[in-house]
Amino acid sequence: MTQRFAVLGSPIAHSLSPRLHAAAFAASGRDATYEAIESGAAEFPSVLARLRAEGFAGVNLTAPLKALGLAAADEATPAARAAGAANTLAFRGGAVQAENTDGAGFAVFLERAGVPVAGRAIAFVGGGGAVRGLVPALLERGAGPVAVVVRAPARAAADFAPFLARGLRIVALDASDDGPAARAIGEASLVVQGTPLGLRPGDPLPCPAAWPGPQAVAIDLLYHPPVTPWLAALRARGVRAANGLGLLIEQALLAQRFWFGVEPPRSALEEAVRWRDPFAPSPAPSAEAPGR
After folding, report:
1. Residue 68 — very low, low, confident or very high, per pLDDT cuts 50/70/90?
2. String of b and e for 142-176 (b: at least 16 CB within 10 Å)?
3. 3-state class of 114 per DSSP?
């Protein structure tokens, strides 16, 4: 019997998850399908119930559904519980099982890119479900100090309460170039952008592009478009910066492991989305022959 999977979120039409998982199924010889289904927070319970009734085997979740996904689960992995959010659900034996592959996937992406975490200052811009999945994984790997820079610090303090005793700081985002937010971001070795800001006309950037230091690595968790205005502004300053596609590949590999117990070949997923390491140096131009 064909197994059915999907990714839920809003907006979702741009998602590359169907392409990644279709490639994973093909490379693994699985009889399975994967589709993108639009679902906001209000309709999520009914959509989830419908998919379970239709015999779906599992789903991935993106904004704004990750916290709701955990709340809907009967069982959750330690990673999902620590994050307070789930990005992967499996429907097994009448139960909903929740996993969060954000943090582990991000750690693998950084390791493969040669970006150290242990003992390094990290600043997150935004405190949504994606960021909540990353913070515990990086703290476990010795990151610190870690700051979460947000527009609503009181809400973030509640969302990240379990990590405040481990040195996590909540910093209010303001416009001052010499305020606490600018200092936290400017001192960070790794700056992670986790908001949807900067994509629509008239949107402000998530934070001023001048704030990350020239020594920093910056990651925008968005990957559509491939180069956001924030990334473009950082790269113009010479900051090493990447979008979230590398993380999406790692998330997909770990979701496959959660569903099936094994991972498909990484190369199949990379080829499906024409992945190229954003930190790899550009090929040197070939020398012209004398006299040309």
Report:
1. very high
2. ebbebbbbbeeeeebeebbeebeeeebebbebeee
3. coil
Structural domain of residue 226, as residue ranges? 103-243
pLDDT digits 0-9 by tens, 124-178: 999 988 899 999 999 999 998 999 999 999 999 999 999 999 989 999 999 899 9
Tracing tokens 């973030």 back to the chain, one arrives at 156
Rounded distance between C-alpha atoms, residue 225 and residue 130, angstroms: 18
DSSP classification of residue 62: -
Sign of dihedral through CA atoms 132, 58, 265, 12?
Answer: negative
Q: 227 and 113, same structural domain?
A: yes
Total domain count for the chain?
A: 2
Q: Is residue 291 part of a domain?
A: no
Instruction: Beginning with the edge strand found earlier in the chain, give each strand of the sheet holding 169-172 in spatial order.
Output: 169-172, 146-150, 122-125, 190-193, 217-220, 240-242
Q: Which residue has 């015999």 as its token pair?
A: 55
| Residues with catalytic roles | 66
Q: Are residues 93 and 131 in the same domain?
A: no
Q: Report how far residue 39's alpha carbon sits from residue 12's, in angstroms, rounded to the nearest whole number.
A: 8
Do residues 184 and 60 both lie within one domain? no
